[in-house]
Amino acid sequence: CCVFFFFQAEDGIRDFCLSRGLGDVYKRQVQDRVFLSPLCQFPRARSRLVGVEENFLNSIYDEFYLPGAYDPDISEYGELQNSGKDDGVRGLFVNDGLQSYGGDKDSKNVVARASMREKSIESSQTLDEIKIIVAEGLKIGLSLDIGVPALITSQQNNTYRAKIRHLIKKVPGVPFSQYQQVQFYSRTLVSMQEYYVLAENLWREAEEPILQQQITEYKQSIPDGSTYGVAKDKMFIMYGRETSENERAQLQNGLKNFINIDTTMVFDTYQLVIDTERLLLFLELALVLIGFIAIVLTFFLLLVSFINNIMENVWEYGILRAVGLTTLNMQKLYIYEALSLTLASGVLGCCIGMGIAALIASQFALFTELPLSVDAPWILLGSTFALGILTSVFA
Questions:
Q1: Which residue has the higher pLDDT, 162 or 18?
Q2: Closest Cα partner for 224 from 4, 21, 6?
Q3: Pairwise CA distance, residues 375 & 393, whole Å
Q4: In this structure, is the dihedral angle defined by the CA atoms of residues 206, 210, 216 and 220, taken in order, positive or negative?
Q5: Most confident of 140-154, 293-307, 312-326, 338-352
Q6: What is the spatial distance between Cα 317 and Cα 244, in angstroms, rounded to a whole number?
Q7: Which residues, 6 or more positions from 262, have their beta carbon under 8 angstroms from its beta carbon?
Q8: CB-based contacts of 387, cutoff 8 Å, min separation 6
Q9: Is there a contact between 197 and 130 (Cβ–Cβ < 8 Å)?
């Protein structure tokens, strides 16, 4: 099972859990998948459980957190510190609206055939619903939605009643999607406490000797002092203040001192965003340069075109001079004609270009599932129009 480990930093470290042995090779758990379905158990699909801490969304780059529906049974979700969006993960840590079935077993085998409360973390032995968060795409793929009773089924067909707290379209660190194809690689977010309980129950259900041996080896590989008794797969760090590139580099190098394998990597998301913005700025400047070169070439093309136009229409211009047009009027006539052609072609070109850009952006948003955003390159657009008008006047 995939487990995430999060903490935040603000002038140091804030709200963190110690986990020794960072960077060790963790064997993937044998019972790493369950089946997720409505209460009728059809349709159903495999899903991997992901245990998260309560500060998960405050520890990621939440600009790309796209929330879906929220459970109305929760009175208040709270807001994220950076974006101000409702903290949907908080629903995993409150018991508002849960149903209790008053026993540690379901004697009629209607709701569940195993207890979710056989653990030392909580003393309650009642069969409560497991609080989960799933992808928005499961609304179509598995008919799961807020208010629809869900069921988690182990590989040994033991079932656990679940309550959907929140639907997520996209979130960094977890492959969520709003398309129904997500059912083939879905993830289910649960609190770290309930993840531990469910994992222990899944391990106890393993009957094959090979599976039991692998589970034993996995447990032995967990470093001593690991929180909740499970290995961690990822760690997200969020600074609570603005940091310099050197500060982030020092933290990144410090973390690498604890990593002794090549498969574990450290990424500075904030620096990646800065580098991407710089790249886009250089790209826009390059387009401006290309546009300037095109305008210079257009200047000479217009110059040759107007000279040929004058030479071909000398007789018409002579008639206009004969009826009383002055030299200034003739120059205005040339300039107005050039401006008309330039502005008309510019407006038509911008409309066609913006339409194509919107089409490409919509295709990009279709695959990335990010909100559609079409930003006009005003610097390039304004400089090109200005150079075009100057070319029309002085050519």
A1: 162
A2: 21
A3: 30
A4: negative
A5: 140-154
A6: 67
A7: none
A8: 291, 292, 295
A9: no
Token duo for residue 391 = 């070319």
| CB contact at 8 A, 36 and 150 | yes
Which phi and psi angles does 153 have, rounded to 5°?
-120, 130
What global pTM score does this model have? 0.75
What letter does residue 136 receive in the DSSP assignment? T
Q: Would strands 234-239 and 2-9 be described as parallel, antiparallel, or unpaired?
A: parallel
Mean pLDDT in residue range 155-160: 80
Of 219, 189, 193, nearest to 204 by C-alpha is 219
| Beta-bridge partners for 174 | 171
Structure tokens of 53?
């801490």
Asked if pLDDT for residue 106 goes beyond 70, the answer is: no
Q: H-type helices in 96-244, by residue range?
A: 138-141, 192-205, 209-221
The pair of structure tokens assigned to 136 is 């928005």
Structural contact between residues 188 and 47, judged by C-beta atoms closer than 8 angstroms:
yes
Phi, then psi, of 159 in degrees rounded to 5: -115, 150
3-state helix, strand, coil in the chain (%, to 5): 45, 15, 40
Strands 66-70 and 159-170: what pairing? Answer: antiparallel
Residue type, 55: N
Alpha carbons 81 and 238: distance in angstroms, whole number: 11
Q: Is the pLDDT of residue 395 over 90?
A: no
